[in-house]
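HOLO CASE FILE
Compound: zinc ion
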Amino acid sequence: MTDPVHDRYWSRNGPVTDWKSDVGPGWHSLLDQLHAELSEIAPDYKTAQVKEKFGKLRVYIDLPPGVREMLGDAIWQVLGKYEDMSGHTCEDCGQPGEIRTSRSWLRTLCDACEAQRHVISSLGGE
Ligand SMILES: [Zn+2]
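Model generated. Tokens follow.
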């Protein structure tokens, strides 16, 4: 039985490094490091989704049957560690940053990128 929605959802399921376009360039090296760690503990992992949520990097992965039960804790620890790291890494340039609030959304940015964003929004951009 084929479920088209399910198929579309899982159509992009390579390593997390295939998902760089879904987050800012400052987090690309985090995805490289995350992929290296995940490959060591779960070489067969697939990526379900990579996105920015509440200013932090969120990664959802899929594991082969049985592996999730076996490696669950180790996997969540790794994912949690990178989520924490992203909260201190500028999503735009990769420099040390912190979570900033802007109107309705949160982003992790360094001082320079935050200042840049204010310049852009005062010019009517964004
Ligand atoms: Zn920056």
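CASE NOTES: The mean pLDDT is 87. The chain is about 40% helix and 20% strand.
CLOSED: yes
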